[in-house]
Amino acid sequence: MESSKEFIDLVVTSDVQTFYSRRRFPLKITVGELKKKVEILTGIPFSCMTLQIVKPDGQKLKLFDANETLADLNISDGTTIHVNIKICTVRDFLLQNKLGKYNPNHEKLVAKEEMEIDVLDKQVGQRCIVKIGDPQEWKRGKIAYIGETDFKPGLWIGVEYDEEVGKHDGSVNGKRYFQCMDKRGAFVKPHLVKTEMENEEALEL
Predict the structure, then answer these.
(1) From start to end of 27-136, where are the E strands?
(2) What superfamily would CATH give domain 119-198?
(3) 3-class DSSP state for residue 12?
(4) Residue 165 in contact with residue 185, Cβ under 8 Å?
(5) Secondary-structure class of domain 7-88 per CATH
(6) Checking phi first, is residue 43 left (phi over 0); if not, alpha (psi -120 to 50) or beta?
């Protein structure tokens, strides 16, 4: 059985968001073998990474020799192994620069773009139908407001319904966005609203 002196506790960090992991490694493994183990931890291809040692005293050292062992490095427990990403492919470029799907805010950005597309052909004053309720059904009205609001993030469409199926008179939390009769106003997501041109075959407004 191997003694505890044949192992070392290392902290692994990377450029990918805020990755942090504390792991025990054999002192006899090489830098090349360490990269393959780190690939499993971080998801970064070992061929697209460089390793940097950050010693407890703050000293930094890049690891270039793939055949060098951890024992050769003369490091102690608590030493940090930081994974730097080198650009190999378009994917690696996106990953390193946190672009596209590797951007932590990717889903929010996509959702915002989709909402912006949904309102491109909509204008205040247009007749529309809106899908509301549970079970959902279409209700008639007109678009009274398009834009952002103070009560929730994102783009919203303010609708003035033809009947009392709304929630207010165009004012929310003391701020007026449009004017209509009480219980005929509501804010809905753009994808739930269809204009007359979009839905002329389904409903004659």
Answers:
(1) 49-54, 60-63, 79-85, 127-132
(2) CAP Gly-rich-like domain (2.30.30.190)
(3) strand
(4) no
(5) alpha beta
(6) left
**One-letter identity of residue 69:** T
Burial 7-16 (b: 16+ CB within 10 A, else e): ebebbbbbbe
Q: Which residue reads 């509501």 in tokens?
A: 186
Q: How far apart are CA 173 and CA 23, in angstroms?
A: 52
- For residue 198 the two structure tokens come to 């979009």
Strand partners, 26: 7
**In the chain, where are the structural domains located?**
7-88, 119-198
Residue 203 has pLDDT above 60, yes or no: no
Q: Tokens representing 36?
A: 């393959």
Distances 103 to 95, 100, 109, 111, 157 between C-alpha atoms, Å: 8, 6, 9, 13, 28
Angle at the Cα of 199 from the Cα atoms of 145 and 170, rounded to 5 degrees:
20
What per-residue confidence (pLDDT) applies to 2?
Answer: 43
Question: Is 61 within 8 Å of 52 (Cβ atoms)?
Answer: yes
Location of structure tokens 């839905």: 199
- Tens of pLDDT, residues 112-146: 666 666 677 788 999 999 988 777 788 999 999 99
Sorted by sequence, the CB contacts under 8 Å of residue 10 that are 6+ apart come out as 22, 23, 24, 25, 75, 77, 78, 79, 80, 81
Q: What is the DSSP letter of 86?
A: P
What pLDDT does residue 101 have?
Answer: 66
